[in-house]
C-alpha cells in the first residue's frame, strides 16, 4: 500500500529532521539497513527513517510527530526477533523507532530484589550488572548478547529457564510505555504486590509494540544461584524424557532450572558449527536431555543432582549421563545446544517452528507430526528439540540437501502445513514463545475465533485508534489514513 | 440512582423467571439476603434478583437478558471479598449473578500438571481434589473453605504463599469468560506456554467482574510438597524480620513458602478468639515471624530449616524460636495467625488495610504510619502484620475500646487518612491483594493518573460499552441507560 510519492518521502524526512533533530534521525539507506533487515536475514525492507531517541520524552515527541505526519511506527529493540515483528514491511509510510540509545540501568536495588532499566539495555549487560550485586535476573536465551529488554517484554520472551521462573511476563514488576497518542503511561513501580484493579501493564507485554512503545521496565530479581549442576543424559525416547521431567519436577522440587530435549542429530549439527566441541557422551541414544539444577545458600545442589541421577539411572529411565565437573564443562554442554542451532543455519534455509501442546501429549504429537512431515516432504529431516518441560518444542525441518532454493521454500511451506494440521488436532499453539509478528500473522488469523478477533480489534481501536503502532504486526488492521 | 418504579421491579422479576426459569431466579428478600450482605456484615443491600445459573450457556443467556432489560450484573463467587466488589450497591437495577452452582471440577491431569474447574468450585475443595492426585494448587488464604476459584481469579487473590508461587494471576493457564454481550471467550487451554500475541485472559484477572464473568478456569499444578517445616521465631524488630527474610530468600532458595510477620499483640488477640490455643514461645519479643519451608522429593526440608535456624540464631538475628514437631503443632502455629484475625473482629469495628511498599522501605513505612495513627487517633491500637516478604502489611487499627460506634467510624476514617498520607509519600499501594471493589474506589480514583484513567475508560468502553458489568466497582463509570 503506497500512500505517498517519493517527493513526500523527502518531505517527511525533512520534517522529522527539523522537528526531532539530525541526531535522532537516520534516513540514508545504508544507515537504515541494519534496522530494516531481520535477524536471520530472511527479509530486507525499507523505511522512511529510523528514529533513535535518547529519552522517554524524545520517544513521546517522535510518536506525536509521526501521528501528525501520518507515519506509522515499528518499534525495535535488539532486532533479534524471530517473527518479523520489529522490521518494517513493504508499506511506504513506516518509520522504525529504535530504543537502542535508551540503554541505561536506572537502578539495581538488591535489598528490594528489584531493578529499573531502560528498554534498550542489552539483556546480558543487565544480567551482568545485576550479578555484580549478587542477584539474578532469570531470563536466558540464545540472543541475550544482542537482544534488548524492551523487546523481550514486548514479545514476552521465553528461553531456557521458563520452567522455573516463568516467561518474561512473570519477571516484570512495572513498565513505562509511550502510548500511541504520545502520552506516557508511568507504571514503573517496583512493588512486588499491587492489586489495584485491572493490571494495565499486562496489555503491553506480548503486544509486540502494537499498543505502545515500552521505554523502561522494572524487573524482579532473585538471589544469584551460585550453585549449578548440569548434566547431559541419554535416554531411550522422548516419552522417557517426559517421564524424567515429571520425576525431576517432583524430586528436585523448584530447584530445576532447565530441562532441554535434543535428538542425536544435535551432536552432528553442533559439530558442523563447532568442529572442536567435545561431545562427552555416546551419540547413539535415541534421545538426550540437558538438565540443570541450581540454587543459592544452604541447599546442596551437587548432592541433589547426584542422588537424583543415581535414582533414575538405577531405575533405567536414564541410560547414560555425564555431569559437568566445572563451569567450563557446563558451558561446553550448553554449546552443544547452541551449536545445534548454528548447525541448522549452516544447512541453509529451513523451517523453524515454535509449537506447544499439552505436556501429556507432547511425545505423541512429535511422533505424529514427524511422520506427517516425512510423508509430505520426502527426503527432509526433522529436528525436534527444546523446552519439553513446558510442552514446547522447536520442530524444525531441514529440506533435502540437494533441494534448490525454490524447492526449499516450497518444502518449508508444505512441511509447515503438515505440522500445523497435526498441531490443530492437538489444540496446540503455533507460537509457544516467539510471538506472532508479521511472519505468523496469517497462521494466527486463520485460527482466531470471532470472539478473540472482536476483543483484539476493540482493544486496538480503544488504545491506538489512529492505527499508528506497528501496522501489520499480529493482526492486519486497516492502516491509518 | 433509581431508574424504575417498584412496578417495573416486579415486571423485571417476572421476565427473569419466565425467560430463565424459576430454578435460576431468587427474588424473595430473605432468599437474597446472603448474596446482598458482605463477608464482614458491614453492608446489607438489595437486588432485583439473584441468578444462579448451572452452566456457561445459562450465564450467557442471563447476561443477554439482563442487557436487554437494562439490568446491570454483579457477579459473585463465594462472597468472601473484603472490598465490596461482589455485593450490589444501592442502585435499583442490579442483579447478583452467583456462580455457586457451577462448581464442577472438569478435569485434573497430574501428568500435565493442570486442572480445569468451574468458577464456583470452593477453593479448598479444589485443593483437596488436587491433593488426592499427589498434586498441589498453591493458592492459600483464610477464606479458602468458602471462597470460590472464579472470585479468586477475578480479584487476583494473594494469600500466604505468594512469595513462592505468585498471585493467582501466575497460577492460571486459561479462562472461560462470558463477555458483556453474552458471547463466550473460550480460553480454557492448559498449554503452559502460549505466546500468541496479546494475552486476553490477563484483562479479566483482577478486573473484579467489570469486564465479564469468569465461568471456568484452568490452573497450574505443582507436585504436592509432602515435606513441610514450620517455625515461629521471636525477633528484636520488624527491621530484623526483613533482614531475616532476605537471608532466608537466599539460604532457602525457592523452597521458602511462607514468611508472615506478627506483633506480640497477635498472641493476645489469638487468645481472645481461641482461649485454649497453645502459645509455644515467650510473648515478649518485639516481633515474630511465622516461617514455612516446603518441598517434595529428594530435598530434605527439615535439615534445611534446622541448618538455617542454627545459623540465624547463632548470628543473633533470631532471638528465640520454636519448630513444629508435628502437623498438629504446625497447624497450631497457623491458628495463632488466624486467631489474630478473629481476635480483631471480636474487638469490634476496626480499620483493615492491605498496603504495600518497597520491601527495602517497609520497616520505615510501618514505623512512620503507626506514629501518624497514634497522633491522629490517640488511644487507638495498631496491629501491623502480614506478608512482609512481599512488602505487604495489613496495618490495621483498633479504635479505643471505650469508643461508641459513631466515634469508631470517625476514628477509622481518620486513621485511614493518616496511613494513606504516609503511604503516598512512599509511593505505596492502597491494595496489595484485596482489590478495589466499591470500598476502595474513592481512594483508588483519587490516586489515578489521567493516563491510567483514560486507558481504563477506553478498555471499559471497548469491552462493556453498555456498562452492564458490575457498575460502581473499581471506577464510577456512567450506568447503562
TrEMBL record, chains A, B:
Entries under PANTHER family matching the protein: BLL6224 PROTEIN (PTHR43716:SF2), D-2-HYDROXYGLUTARATE DEHYDROGENASE, MITOCHONDRIAL (PTHR43716)
InterPro entries in alphabetical order: FAD-bd_oxidored_4_C, FAD-bd_PCMH, FAD-bd_PCMH-like_sf, FAD-bd_PCMH_sub1, FAD-bd_PCMH_sub2, FAD-linked_Oxase-like_C, FAD-oxidored/transferase_4, Oxid_FAD_bind_N
Native species: Pseudorhizobium flavum
GO terms under biological process: respiratory electron transport chain
GO molecular function term, any single one: catalytic activity
Domain FAD-binding PCMH-type: 43-224
Coiled coil regions, renumbered to chain: none
Protein name, UniProt field: FAD/FMN-containing dehydrogenase
UniProt keyword list: FAD, Flavoprotein
Record PROSITE patterns: FAD_PCMH
UniProt xrefs under Pfam families: FAD-oxidase_C, FAD_binding_4
Similarity remark: Belongs to the FAD-binding oxidoreductase/transferase type 4 family.
